[in-house]
Design brief:
By secondary structure, this protein is mostly helical. The chain has two domains: 80 residues, Arc Repressor Mutant, subunit A (Orthogonal Bundle), CATH 1.10.10.10; 139 residues, Four Helix Bundle (Hemerythrin (Met), subunit A) (Up-down Bundle). Helix content is 72%, strand content 3%. A two-stranded antiparallel ribbon has the order 1-2. A hairpin with a 3-residue loop joins strand 1 and strand 2. The N and C termini lie far apart (72 Å).
Length: 237
């Protein structure tokens, strides 16, 4: 009888974990799409009702988002999507520029032909996916993830994952801007060429330029979308 009881509990526990993962992925996607904007309240009862699950996996999902730095607890408001100020946005992109520039330099030394072929294939898919913002976003994530893994540095991978998670708060992808999507493909190709040639310094410089272009597009998006992130005084670009 006892063994039967244990067998009955395990599936329920597994279902709970799956629901928690589903709730986390759903809320993460809503933050990324901008459906849940900075400052939006995350109410367990509302989310549980909307996703047709219990409050327990929703609570777990909110805790995970808080651990990721995407959610904060505000007095009298409870859990809310974090709002980044201008300085934090700049710091986030500065950190991303450093990490991904370093990844490109290390990849020039460590990347295999298979990894380079994968980067080229992903970038070609991006070229063909222009106009499909959701597809472009997913492919761009794949490209940068593959590049970072090609650097062969586990500590860099962890740091980059943390920065990428924080970027979700900013909502819309810069690749929704048509000219940015086109430029990103060209910039990716330049990074790949430098890596394939084993030119570490050139790969890092090219990746840094790519990140800085993305940062400029992000700042323009924030200023034109009514975002709570202000432009610094005197910045007219």
């Amino acid at each position: 009888m006892k063994e039967s009881s244990n067998l009955a509990v395990e599936p329920r526990s597994r279902i709970g974990r799956l629901q928690g993962q589903d709730a986390y992925e759903q809320l993460l996607d809503e933050i990324r799409r901008g459906d849940l904007k900075p400052g939006a309240r995350l109410t367990e009862t509302e989310i549980a009702s909307r996703l047709s699950i219990s409050r327990t996996p929703v609570r777990e999902a909110i805790r995970r988002l808080e651990a990721d730095g995407l959610v904060a607890h505000e007095p009298r408001s409870g859990a809310t999507v974090r709002t980044l100020d201008y300085a934090e946005v700049m710091e986030l992109y500065e950190m991303r520029t450093v990490l991904e520039g370093t990844a490109a330099r290390l990849a020039a030394r460590a990347a295999t032909d298979v990894e380079l072929a994968e980067l080229e294939a992903i970038n070609e898919e991006m070229r063909e996916a222009r106009g499909d913002a959701q597809r472009l976003f997913a492919l761009n994530q794949d490209f940068h993830r593959a590049l970072i893994l090609a650097a062969r540095n586990r500590f860099l991978v962890r740091s980059a994952n943390s920065v990428h998670s924080a970027l979700m708060i900013l909502g819309r992808s810069t690749l929704e801007v048509p000219e940015r999507a086109s430029a990103a493909v060209t910039e990716h190709a330049a990074v790949i060429r430098a890596i394939r040639a084993g030119q570490g310094a050139a790969a890092e410089e090219t990746m840094r330029a790519h990140m800085e272009s993305a940062q400029q597009t992000r700042l323009r998006l924030l200023r034109t979308s009514g975002s709570p992130v202000p432009a610094p005084e005197g910045d007219s670009e």
